[in-house]
Amino acid sequence: MGLGTDIAGGYSIDIMDAMRHAVTVSRMREGARIRASANKERSRTDEDYGKPLFIDWKEALHLATRGGALA
Description:
Number of strands: 0
Order of helices and strands: HHH
Largest sheet: none
Strand content: under 5%
Number of helices: 3
Helix content: 40-55%
């Protein structure tokens, strides 16, 4: 998977903004996953709940550089 920007596909062409948003959204998804797990609202399979959904700045940097090049 890669992370990139496009003038027609978003609000900014700054790759650092894309990385920042990727980390923020992934943390929000992880929080929602934890909350759903605590409330027993399982919309996905049980095995999906063992995998963390968040990424840190290191993974965002990889997705924006090497990950994008590989993709």
